[in-house]
Amino acid sequence: MNTLVQPIKGFRDLYPQDKAIQNYLFSVLKKTADRYGFEQYDGPLLENIQIYLNKSSEELINRQTFQVKDRNDQTLVLRPEMTPSLARMVAKASQQLVLPIKLFNIGLRFRYEAPQKGREREFYQADYDVIGSNDILADVECLATAINIFTGLGATEKQFVVNVNSRSVMHNQLQNLGVNSDQMKPLLGIIDHMDKLSEEDFAKEIATLGLTNTEAVKTFLKNPIDPESDPYFAQLFKLLKIYSLDKYVKINPSIVRGLDYYTGLVFEIKPVEGMRRSLLGGGRYDNLVSTYDTSLNIPGVGFATSDVVLWAFAKDHDLIPTVRSKPTDVLVTVFDPSTVEASVQVVQELREKGINAEIYPQSDKKLDKQLKYADKNNIPFVIIIGANEIAKGTVVVKDLKTKEQREIEKEKVGGEMKLLV
Amino acid sequence: MNTLVQPIKGFRDLYPQDKAIQNYLFSVLKKTADRYGFEQYDGPLLENIQIYLNKSSEELINRQTFQVKDRNDQTLVLRPEMTPSLARMVAKASQQLVLPIKLFNIGLRFRYEAPQKGREREFYQADYDVIGSNDILADVECLATAINIFTGLGATEKQFVVNVNSRSVMHNQLQNLGVNSDQMKPLLGIIDHMDKLSEEDFAKEIATLGLTNTEAVKTFLKNPIDPESDPYFAQLFKLLKIYSLDKYVKINPSIVRGLDYYTGLVFEIKPVEGMRRSLLGGGRYDNLVSTYDTSLNIPGVGFATSDVVLWAFAKDHDLIPTVRSKPTDVLVTVFDPSTVEASVQVVQELREKGINAEIYPQSDKKLDKQLKYADKNNIPFVIIIGANEIAKGTVVVKDLKTKEQREIEKEKVGGEMKLLV
């Protein structure tokens, strides 16, 4: 086979059955946004590389993104994430926006990484953000929204866990354990990937920092934090209890999130078993908008998840429902070229009644082939109009599930079919 | 203002109100696909440049597309159109697909052209294709689907016209007027842009071809074609009459469509007045799949339209309805930090009842500010729970439209609000 028929590596061909599953995932994401009050927005897929340099090194961006040179030799980046675009758009419209504002985006993102289970180079990401509130209520609303996505998919607390932490609490607690400001950033870097390290490698990496109290830091990182150890966590769990969501959430000191822009709450949702990949991640970023204009003091908190990872998770837990990709409820067959006119009249009548209907798009195929088409496409009803029916002013309706068929008056076909579909 | 807050040229920031309008346009496009039996699919946004070289010169593609070099120095193209990806996907799955198949895609396309009214560098395009039928019924179904998009927007035959032509009919008729095979391709090129030429320039361009019968060709091109002049057109109009769609359609010899791959029917929808830009275009392409595998003889017919041009058309004709961007039906206010618990209980109760509800995400703002938030966001109902209400076990519901407010039992709030929204 011609290799050109394959998509490029890490990119997906979505044939109708897969696209229908993706649309189901999108509908869960959109419904959650609606239920929790997030308005949809969108921004460009290509952005000037400058907007990503605020928070990452150029070297990292060059390694992890797809780039385009425009005709003025500017480097444009296929957006790897939405938050920098969001911060740009908030900065641009800061005079017009009614704050706080809850925003939702679902769109493509691109990362030049090795594809693996739950990760492609091209994927959809859904982002939910609350902009303009520094209140812990906004943090909890984000957690509630995130949890609703998973319960909306039919998952339970036995299948996913929300790991929460706080950058600022971590900072304070580590400082109390003697970590100085030079050691803080590299230590957070080690914590960010400690899940992937052996006990030994973890110890080695920690040793390089020259901490005054290595053992105490290790003990702190390896053990659960008591919510009562800090006023932020105490208040967070008090609120989560009122939301009846505390059963989903655990404080986990190993969660710090890789991105530099987080300032407070950070969280990740992970499967309890199976994939080790994070399913959703987010946190509070109170200084991101001010990188555009230091006079703009606009706090934010939000999170993102991807269709690829949700799909893998839902599949692992048998949570993908049966979805029909073919919208058609009634197929009007074409008995032979001489009966086209009658079939066209019926299909148009059905459509005018608001029924999803199609006419078999070829007038010279055997009825048998047309019935097979309906069957393979899961079209529930078929209408047959031969010369006899035309003479009598009737049509034959066949229910492909029950195999029953009956004759009805052609004039009444729209109304009768409307009751069936 | 920092220039970095602007999107790059030809790319759009869609704040919620604009995104809601775009979603409305998407819903019309999707509903039409459903009504006419088209299944949704999608493919990659980046494709190997090779798949476009089948039908256009590399020079043209380099001039009109955004390109990415991958790490193997392969040139990837941000898809400028969907049809080549579709042909690739059909060729790849030709053994599995049930043909004929009706396919619908809505997705981003990118063209490196000068932005103007109805045209951006980044835009959504909706593609509708019938693959695997060479029957004129498939042609007419495409025309019917295309027309339904415009009637679905509320447009009438006074506002848009469907110009149809046929590449093969043109070929025959021009041949009969003495055009030889060397002259045919450059002549079609002139015809494709003759709308934009003055009478004089048109005559000049035609003259360069050295036709044997220039005047007859000019007369043919400048005058309507009688449907009865050709069996294809005669049958097309016979069917269009049965569909009751003939009033929208005109044969126009100046429509040939620029793309090389069209083989039969070609058509464009244009506004009757205003913009000269084509709103939708398509045609029959019977040899496109065989460019991947010459053993695959799979005919196709389809068309595409863009959100940008539909938006401009709908705006020109005042066809854009009022759309709400904020999904929230009920805002639960937070009277003061001491009442947060009661407000959270109510908002969660509403959400469990399937109501789109939000809690004001800050507990230290005056009620007045919260009511303004509801008002500016067009949220129809507000719930207020102060210390008095908590004591009585009630909540106050305020209808922001009628300004009426009433007190209801907190226990019944879910059921009562469900009746209102």
Features:
homodimer; 421 residues; alpha+beta; 5-stranded mixed sheet; 15 helices
What integer value in Å does the Rg of chain A equal? 28 Å
- Let me know the average pLDDT of chain A: 94
The oligomeric state is homodimer
How large is the share of residues in beta strands of chain A?
15-25%
Number of strands of chain A: 16
Report the largest inter-chain contact: A-B, 96 and 95 residues
Order the strands across the largest sheet of chain A as they lie in space.
1-5-6-11-10-9-7-8
Distance between the termini of chain A: 42 Å
Low-confidence stretches of chain A: none
| Helix residue percentage of chain A | 25-40%
Shape of chain A: elongated
Q: What profile does the largest beta sheet of chain A have?
A: 8 strands, mixed
SS-based class of chain A = alpha+beta
Helix count, DSSP H or I runs of 4 or more residues of chain A: 15
Provide structural commentary.
- The first copy, chain A, is an alpha+beta fold and about 425 residues long.
- Chain A has helices spanning about 15-35, 50-55, 60-65, 85-90, 135-150, 165-175, 180-190, 200-205, 215-220, 230-240, 305-315, 340-350, 365-375, 385-390, 415-420, and strands at about 40, 45-50, 65-70, 75-80, 100-110, 120-130, 160-165, 250, 265-270, 280-285, 300-305, 330, 355-360, 380-385, 395-400, 405-410.
- In chain A, the strands form 3 sheets. In chain A, strands 1-5-6-11-10-9-7-8 form an 8-stranded mixed sheet. The first copy, chain A, has a 5-stranded mixed sheet with strand order 13-12-14-15-16.
- In chain A, a hairpin with an 8-residue loop joins strand 9 (about 265-270) and strand 10.
- The model of chain A has no long low-confidence stretch (mean pLDDT about 95).
- The interface between A and B is large, with 96 and 95 residues.
